[in-house]
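Question thread 4412

I'm putting together a teaching handout and wanted feedback from people who do this every day. The idea is simple: show students a protein as raw sequence, then show them the structure tokens that encode its fold, then repeat with a second protein so they can compare. Below is the first pair exactly as I plan to print it.
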Amino acid sequence: DVFEQPQHVGHKKIEFHITADIPSVLQINSEKEEKNDLCATTEETNNAGFGKIFPAPTSDDKMETEEENDEIPSEFISRRELEKNRLSREEMEKFSVFKNYEPGDPNCRIYVKNLAKQVQEKDLKFIFGRYVDFESEMERNMFDIRLMKEGRMKGQAFVGLPNEKAAAKALKEANGYMLFEKPMVVQFARSARPKQDSSEGKRKK
């Protein structure tokens, strides 16, 4: 009673009157779009896909890999930092710990000595973790740090790396690195560990 009931009316006819000018307008718009597309493609090359609804997948992949590479220095030490705080060959000769230094036979395990008292496993992980691909479960499992804090082996550590190549790179880049104002001595670990312990003891005497 309150609202009026809508009255059913027959079919209405809707007509569109299109003038002949519109196609030319559309043409201008399409030209503008083409220009915009050109701008977008130049922007895409500069900004790796910025401003495009569907950027090229290759540029996206590149960005991701670049980001991953950039993450290395934040989680682990950067090569620049290693080089900056590493002793030169001439400086090493002044330290008795580098006297008669021999890198040893290459293998995937390295031996680190002359470590400062305050060195912790996380410090060694920060340095040697850069030689491990943590996305690979196998490499993650092979990465192993044993830091000796007591007894005769105090100030020494063994670091297991995924392969010989990684160990050789770690030895080359980290030997002579000043950690807590003490230069690290990095060598390849010998397989006969007890023999190594006694020879280390003799060397110290």
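The second pair follows. I'd like the answer to focus on this one:
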Amino acid sequence: QVLDGAGLDVDFHLLSPKGETLVFDERKSDGVHTVETEDGDYMFCFDNTFSTISEKVIFFELILDNMGEDGQEQEDWKKYVTGTDLLDMKLEDILESINSVKARLSKSVQIQTLLRAFEARDRNIQESNFDRVNFWSMVNLGVMVVVSAVQVYMLKSLFEDKRKSRT
């Protein structure tokens, strides 16, 4: 997501380890991409070469799902479980509840991070608008002072006696 910069747009490229283009977006302000991965190094690039004057502030988040650790955690739990089938059932229920809470908390953190990015972009736009309004207000105030000074001078010149008086 582009948070700040002229146009709020940027090009995005995602390349696979084989060098194939997986995602290519031109001049987008935000986007969400899901890609099935394979082993290797991926390359992603945010390109702003089309805008040589302005710089951009970018927010991005890389989320890796199913890294194989969840299955290992469950196996670690099972080696500590001994006893009756009832105990096994209760521990598996507890494990399922804990994993459910963990997944929901993780999703909440992701959503809050995304909302913070939206808030940052909106705040940058508001500050830019505030600066623009202040600048044009000062220009308007300057014009009004100049016009009022000219009007006072013109009105004063109407009431001046331009005849030469002889004494």
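Top answer:
Good format. For the second protein you could add a caption like this: Residues 1-64 form one domain. The longest helix spans residues 85-158.
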